[in-house]
Amino acid sequence: MALWRLRSVRLKLLALAMGVAGGIAYATWPGHSGCAGGSCASSVQAQASSQPLIEGGADAAQKVMTLPAAGGMSPTDEAAMQRIYAAFATGDFVGALTQADSAASATDFSAEFRRWLGQQMPSLLISAGWAKLRLGDCDQSIEWLRRAAAIEPAASAVKGLAVCYYKQKHMMQAREYFLTYIAEQPSDSEMLLLYTDVLESEGRFTDAVEILKQLVALADKPGSNLDKATLSQRLTSMQGRERESSAMQTEASRNFRLTFRSGDHEDLVAFVMQALEDAVDEYHESYGLPAPQSPIEVVLYPSNAFQSVTAGGPSWAEGLYDGRIRIPVRQASQTTDRADLDVVLRHELVHALLALVDDSRSLPSWFSEGIAQRLSCANRACAGFQFPPTAGGFLPQDSFITSYLALSAVNAGRAYQQSLFMVMAIEALKGEQALRQILTNLTTNSDLSSDGLMAPIGLNFSALYNSSSDYWKRRQGPSSR
């Protein structure tokens, strides 16, 4: 197998408070590989600043939850009312709704209380729905937001439903609620930007391009907080995808929806589908990563068109994940080294599965990129770590937490290798099952700090860093202990 080197950069185009949007991961060959035979790879992650999609989904609801004027209620009514209101006022929206539903089904409350409770239910349902949305529980969120919309189609309920169906990749339902919401709130630029992603999934590139043109124009207006440079790159990418779309066709498997150029890439379709399905099964069996609930989108592009569909990305990219796995394919696909392609697919799939597990929240760079490299080694076939001829020192501890793009070129190269090295050190220190323990403890509301990730295996990041640094200084591969 040709020596494979992988590098991954995760850039946020739209980072939303509840993890609606994912990052971008790029792949390439430069640098030194961390595993013998090129089985593993080195990588880097970068994150832009997060911007919330909605400033507290419950805020608007709180303004309309009111206490009635004194009188007209029994002591039992007033006690229940105060419990519900107190829970809501302290931010326990789910608890407030639970108490309200319980009271609604009871028979010992007055008609006055029931009228009051009926008036508060939209606020209670919307607030609890958004609370669940932020925790990644869209099934429950959808149930409550649909109840709220049936009573009163408030914009915040419709918005939450659009976001949840988008997150679940139910694009037909998402589009319905996006259209309803945007018709009422046409100036919500963040929802418009998110809607372009829905349109891309449906192959409606022309509509997506028109919306992005509108947003770029809005960015020039005084007082706009839109990032024109980012929007312009997004527009250029979407225009490139629009040009490519006329020649594309799509096939589906159990867990993936693969789009490729007709007449050029048919010979790779079966290989790509099988490689990804095998990797999903392996990652589940060996590491406990769940299979996707909805198909992951994968797109193959001609390599000479890849820059146009990923505007702003590095020219050396050999693959990326930005909510979709995108892979460039050489003009003569028979020259594509399928072993190399397999590693790219497996690496980007790790990013895709982690985004599903942690609701697309940012992971520390060392972990996200180190684990993607480690799992890219098929069936854990990584050999001992291969040190570069001049290994250099171990980077400072804080270098591994933030974006690797802030590092110098020399330090960035080491950061890629040393991220993998630390992940391999976890296995050396805590056993082969340690990575599985970490990954199976990841949830949509997990502590994603380095110490939080290490907690399930009784390790902290400082201890891991010190051990890894010691191994590195002695040029001792972590697997050899």
Overall radius of gyration: 25 Å
* End-to-end Cα distance: 28 Å
SSE order, one letter for each helix or strand? EHHHHHHHHHHEEHEHEEHHHHHH
Biggest sheet character = 6 strands, mixed
How many helices does DSSP assign? 18
Structural class: alpha/beta
Residue ranges: pLDDT <50 for 5 or more in a row?
1-63
Summarize the model shown:
The protein has 481 residues and is of the alpha/beta class. It has 18 helices and 6 strands. The protein has helices at residues 59-64, 75-89, 93-105, 111-134, 138-151, 155-167, 171-184, 189-201, 205-219, 228-245, 266-287, 306-309, 338-357, 365-376, 409-430, 434-440, 450-454, 461-473, and strands at 25-27, 248-252, 256-261, 296-302, 319-321, 325-329.
Q: Key terms for this structure?
A:
globular, 481 residues, alpha/beta, disordered N terminus, six-stranded mixed β-sheet
Structure commentary:
The structure is a single chain. With 481 residues, the protein is an alpha/beta fold. The protein is built from 18 helices and six strands. The protein has a six-stranded mixed β-sheet, covered by helices on one side. Helix 15 (409-430) crosses helix 18. The chain is globular. Residues 1-63 have low confidence and may be disordered.
Question: Helix and strand layout, with pairings?
Answer:
Elements (H helix, E strand, L loop, with lengths): L24 E3 L31 H6 L10 H15 L3 H13 L5 H24 L3 H14 L3 H13 L3 H14 L4 H13 L3 H15 L8 H18 L2 E5 L3 E6 L4 H22 L8 E7 L3 H4 L9 E3 L3 E5 L8 H20 L7 H12 L32 H22 L3 H7 L9 H5 L6 H13 L8
Parallel strand pairs: 3-4, 4-6
Antiparallel strand pairs: 1-5, 2-3, 5-6
